Amino acid sequence: xxxxxxxxxxxxxxxxxxxxxxxxxxxxxxxxxxxxxxxxxxxxxxxxxxxxxxxxxxxxxxxxxxxxxxxxxxxxxxxxxxxxxxxxxxxxxxxxxxxxxxxxxxxxxxxxxxxxxxxxxxxxxxxxxxxxxxxxxxxxxxxxxxxxxxxxxxxxxxxxxxxxxxxxxxxxxxxxxxxxxxxxxxxxxxxxxxxxxxxxxxxxxxxxxxxxxxxxxxxxxxxxxxxxxxxxxxxxxxxxxxxxxxxxxxxxxxxxxxxxxxxxxxxxxxxxxxxxxxxxxxxxxxxxxxxxxxxxxxxxxxxxxxxxxxxxxxxxxxxxxxxxxxxxxxxxxxxxxxxxxxxxxxxxxxxxxxxxxxxxxxxxxxxxxxxxxxxxxxxxxxxxxxxxxxxxxxxxxxxxxxxxxxxxxxxxxxxxxxxxxxxxxxxxxxxxxxxxxxxxxxxxxxxxxxxxxxxxxxxxxxxxxxxxxxxxxxxxxxxxxxxxxxxxxxxxxxxxxxxxxxxxxxxxx
Length: 509
Fold this sequence. Notes:
CATH superfamily of the largest domain: Mur-like, catalytic domain
Helix content: 25-40%
Mean pLDDT: 89
Radius of gyration: 23 Å
Number of strands: 19
Oligomer: single chain
Number of domains: 2
Strand content: 15-25%
CATH topology of the largest domain: UDP-N-acetylmuramoyl-L-alanine:D-glutamate ligase
CATH architecture of the largest domain: 3-Layer(aba) Sandwich
């Protein structure tokens, strides 16, 4: 597939929005963005057993490549492949999101806002919860397995050519993540999309996604994670993640200032300093959480929270967000600022409030404090590091009032399991330690030893598998006739969250 057959370079060279005429409403001046006429909704196609069998064959083939936990830090292989494919990554505007926590939720919020403004969207996130097709979404829906297989077959000859070139230069073949990123960009060019919302896989500077030169770069909060790859200090990790902020000057047209905006979520001061210095070096305009944008007010509401957000263009009141936790309110402020920056909104030129409300009200972020059962209430959350577990604990404490909360926890072996358990300890009455099916999962007995140190012997239960652990946790929550005030939270890993979603009959989304 040659992206030149269907690219939108000519669209990218002109403004992708019209300012139209400013109008005065009760909310003040608003920016009537010239939206595309709303087309037909994407056709829903049945997924057959044959489709899933073909998908499994492709997955088995791709699983022979390096996994996401084996890293060779360079963009050279991706650049070779993009050239061979005709540079599909240049055929659409993009918003690129890096950070340690909150990336996926922020990406989903940005994408939902874009769809509310009738933009055709491409979304790529990682890792997936249940099915690999979740990683590549068009119009908010995972790509159909048939299209996933088709796109792989179309780009496969070029991938093999790039493999050969890399090996001749002494490097490895492309990793599975690199191939999936290329498939996403090919799918977006093929659609074609009006905007791609792209989540960094790991780090930023040399992440496979970073072959794009995004219109807006977003850095969510940076913390200590993947220290074996990204560095031992928050400054080193921030430097890697800030690598998605790049100069956008066109050397052939130095008279036309480029749009280049960096949206920076709340940061440790040391991380913020590094990110700001990099933004200055790349001539990027910067908007910072707590300065240029932020959360004015957040109150608990049935099914989520009610927000007033301060954006780049002013305040956006009475926004309902169907997600719990102050961290999601902060993610919403970051997402709104990113969309404002993309459309060129600013003081006196705000986005349409009703459209913003619609975009947030329809956000889905599966596996993020997601309720999958009532009586007792069962939640799933993909928190997999101490920073994420802390945010989860704070959300449970602020937004819910459980008299008894049972945790079901399985953590991957390369994560800070002690840190995760310590962050959760004050929020859980008891914990059921278990093991998901990932070969990288920490053995349940080793996790149990850690849990006993932190929780004490009496509060720790053990189950060798997730279904058994969930069943035990529900029984514990129902004890003593206090079912109405009891709950279960299943967490510790994206894999744990995904397997729990499947267990409760949730469809990939």
